[in-house]
Amino acid sequence: MSELVFDRVSVRFGAHTAVDEASLVVRSGTTLGLVGESGSGKSTVARVAVGLEKAAGGSVRLDGAVLERRNRRSVQMVFQDPLAALDPRMPVGTSVAEGLLATGRRWSGAERRARVQELLELVHIDPSRAGERPARFSGGQRQRITIARALAAQPAVLIADEITSALDVSVQGVVLNLLRELQRELSLTMLFISHNLAVVRYVSDDVAVMRNGRIVEHGPTDTVLDDPADAYTRELLRSIPVMGRPLDLKDA
Ligand SMILES: Nc1ncnc2c1ncn2[C@@H]1O[C@H](COP(=O)(O)OP(=O)(O)OP(=O)(O)O)[C@@H](O)[C@H]1O
To answer: Mind telling me which Pfam families this protein's record contains (predicted)?
Structure first.
């Protein structure tokens, strides 16, 4: 069980309310896709969950317990740009090992190496390449390495913020299929942020739509994307670009 609940979360930057009493439920073991126009507050609401932004009101709870320093490692976030997220001078295995620190337990050198190997295998990166630097990997491989680092912390919830937006369409499918596979194998609960509706439809059980800091729609994926409750949401969904041609992700 690992249900993530945002309960009337608000975030203000000076006089600007970026997130306005947003409530979301990410059901245990499922993926909630969060969509909305650029600047609608999607990243900001997610950043509250991992402590990168402070809420002016409301709370984020994991299985009923308010997220704070003590239990925050249970929620890990992966960002759009894997190059920015990985230290260019550091072997990728060392970056993944950094994620192990968040577990709070002591790892011997041998245990750490074995676990890093396991994590790289989990994301389909050849573990014999653990000593190589990020520049030697492709964009999709680098993104899989950042996912391995996030998983090293043994999170109950993974937040993915536009993680395929910077990738070639051909590689997007590989990363998305990996996410689905990991979710099944690890029973992960996932908050998946994207402006690409084809991608959101592919990975999400539920979808929420954000507008001007507010959640305007929240429900099962098919209902929200095919039959949204209000006219504004229909308009909004039409205005969000689906990048390129629809993806044929089954073959990716
Ligand atoms: N650190 C900050 N200081 C001031 N304003 C900010 C800050 N971070 C975000 N904002 C503002 O908050 C609002 C929401 O931004 P946010 O990045 O959450 O939107 P988003 O829906 O994730 O957009 P995008 O899809 O472009 O990433 C925007 O108006 C943005 O300019």
So the answer is: ABC_tran
